[in-house]
From TrEMBL:
Species this protein is from: Stieleria marina
Record-annotated active site: 128, 241
GO molecular function: aspartate-semialdehyde dehydrogenase activity; NAD binding; NADP binding; protein dimerization activity
Residues engaged in binding substrate: 155, 234
Keywords: Amino-acid biosynthesis, Diaminopimelate biosynthesis, Lysine biosynthesis, Methionine biosynthesis, NADP, Oxidoreductase, Threonine biosynthesis
Pathway: Amino-acid biosynthesis; L-methionine biosynthesis via de novo pathway; L-homoserine from L-aspartate: step 2/3; Amino-acid biosynthesis; L-lysine biosynthesis via DAP pathway; (S)-tetrahydrodipicolinate from L-aspartate: step 2/4; Amino-acid biosynthesis; L-threonine biosynthesis; L-threonine from L-aspartate: step 2/5
UniProt protein name: Aspartate-semialdehyde dehydrogenase
Quaternary structure, from the entry: Homodimer.
The protein's enzyme class: oxidoreductase
Binding, phosphate: 99
Biological role: Catalyzes the NADPH-dependent formation of L-aspartate-semialdehyde (L-ASA) by the reductive dephosphorylation of L-aspartyl-4-phosphate.
Oxidoreductase as UniProt keyword: yes
Organism lineage: Bacteria, Pseudomonadati, Planctomycetota, Planctomycetia, Pirellulales
Pfam family, one: Semialdhyde_dh
Family affiliation: Belongs to the aspartate-semialdehyde dehydrogenase family.
C-alpha cells in the first residue's frame, strides 16, 4: 500500500538519518525518490548500495508516490505539502508548519497512535524537545493525570541542523585558540557557553521553541488543561537534548511507582542509580532511538510531584525515528484495514 516513497530533504541533518533508519528498520518500500530544491538537484546519494539522483521538488513530483517523509524548513512544507496530497501522497512532515493545524494529527506512535486515523493527507511529527518529554510524561499521565509541568531544556546544537554542529565546532576551536568568533546560526558564540534563547520571542517573554512545548504537549496528550512552563536553552553539545522535568500529578505517585511506569512504557529506557553514578547523558544516548529517563525523585518542595532527568537523541526520536515510526504505523494500519 505504501510502496513508493519520496524523501524531501535527504541531505539535511535529519534527512540523512531518515535514510539510515529506512534501511536499518527494513521499511518495506519498493521505490525511493529523493526530492530537494534546485540547489541539490542532480547530486547523488548512496542508499543501500545504489546511487539515487536528487530530483526537483516541484508540482508533478509526487505523481505515483504513496508516502512522503519530509524534513524541510516550515515555508517549504507550507508550499509543497498541499500539492503532494493533491497528487495522491500521504505526507509525514517534520517541520513546524502543520503541527497545530486542527485537521492535521500530531503523532508520537507510542503515545497517540489512534489519532493517525483522522489524517487528511498530512501527518505531523512533533518538535524534538516536545517528543522526548511527552514520551516520558505519557505513562505518568495515564496512571495519575498530569496537571502541570515545569521543564528546562539543554538542547544540542544539531537541533539547528548541520550548520548548528559546524558552528559548535568552529566556535569551540576559536575559543581554544583565542580568536573571536562571529556567530551565524546562534545568537552568541556557543563554544564554552549556554544560550537561554531558542527561537524568537512568541508571547509573555517565552520563545517559539518554548511555546511549542506548551501547545504540542496538550494536542498530543489530548488534554487542554495540562499546564507547561518551559525554559529552552542551547548548550554546547552536538547531539542529544536533555531536559530537567518536574511534573505535578492529580493523584500522588511514589518514586517506585513512577520508576515502574517508566520501565513498563514503550520507548523508554530507565538509567537511574545515583549511588553508582548511573544516569542518562547525551554522549551515551547518541545514535539510540529510545528516550532515557533517570534521577527519578519525589518533589521535596511539596504537592504530588515527580522530578526526573530525560535525554534523547534529538535527530533520532526527536525527528527521524519518530517520522519513520509514523510511516510504519501507516503501513500497519493499512495492512490491518485490508484484512
Ligand atoms: C532545536 N527544536 O533544537 C529545535 C529543532 N527543531 O533548535
Amino acid at each position: 500500500m505504501y510502496e513508493t516513497l519520496a524523501l524531501v530533504g535527504a541531505t539535511g541533518a535529519v534527512g540523512r538519518i531518515v535514510l539510515q533508519q529506512l534501511q536499518e528498520r527494513k521499511f518495506p518500500y519498493k521505490r525511493l525518490k529523493l526530492l530537494a530544491s534546485e540547489r541539490s538537484v542532480g547530486k547523488e546519494v548512496r542508499v543501500n548500495g545504489e546511487s539515487i539522483k536528487i530530483e526537483l521538488l516541484a508540482p508533478g513530483a509526487f505523481k505515483n508516490i504513496d508516502l512522503v517523509i519530509a524534513s524541510t524548513p516550515d515555508e517549504i512544507s507550507r508550499d509543497f505539502a498541499p500539492y503532494a496530497v493533491e497528487e495522491g501522497a500521504v505526507v509525514v512532515d517534520e517541520s513546524g508548519y502543520w503541527r497545530m493545524d486542527p485537521t492535521v494529527p500530531l503523532i508520537i506512535p507510542e503515545v497517540n497512535p489512534d489519532a493517525i486515523d483522522n489524517h487528511k493527507g498530512i501527518i505531523a511529527s512533533p518538535n524534538c524537545s516536545t517528543t522526548q518529554m511527552v514520551v516520558a510524561l505519557a505513562p505518568l499521565h495515564q496512571a495519575a493525570g498530569v496537571k502541570r509541568v515545569v521543564v528546562s531544556t539543554y538542547q544540542a546544537t544539531s537541533g539547528a541542523g548541520l550548520a548548528g554542529t559546524e558552528e559548535l565546532n568552529d566556535s569551540t576551536r576559536s575559543a581554544l585558540t583565542g580568536k573571536t568568533y562571529p556567530p551565524k546560526t546562534f545568537q552568541y558564540p556557543i563554544g564554552f557557553n549556554l544560550i537561554p534563547q531558542i527561537g524568537s520571542e512568541k508571547q509573555d517573554g517565552y520563545t517559539s521553541e518554548e511555546m511549542k512545548m506548551v501547545y504540542e504537549t496538550r494536542k498530543i496528550m489530548g488534554d487542554e488543561n495540562i499546564q507547561v512552563c518551559p525554559t529552552a536553552v542551547r548548550v554546547p553539545v552536538a547531539i542529544g537534548h536533555s531536559e530537567s522535568i518536574l511534573v505535578e500529578t492529580e493523584k500522588p505517585l511514589t518514586t517506585i511507582e513512577a520508576r515502574r511506569l517508566f520501565e513498563d512504557a514503550p520507548g523508554i529506557t530507565v538509567v537511574d542509580d545515583l549511588d553508582n553514578q548511573q544516569y542518562p547523558m547525551p554522549r551515551d544516548c547518541e545514535g539510540k532511538d529510545d528516550v532515557f529517563v533517570g534521577r527519578i525523585r519525589r518533589d521535596i518542595s511539596g504537592g504530588n510531584g515527580i522530578a526526573f532527568w530525560c535525554v534523547s537523541d534529538n535527530l533520532r526520536k526527536g525527528a527521524a525515528t519518530n517520522a519513520v515510526q509514523i510511516a510504519e504505523l501507516l503501513v500497519k494500519r493499512s495492512a490491518a484495514a485490508a484484512k
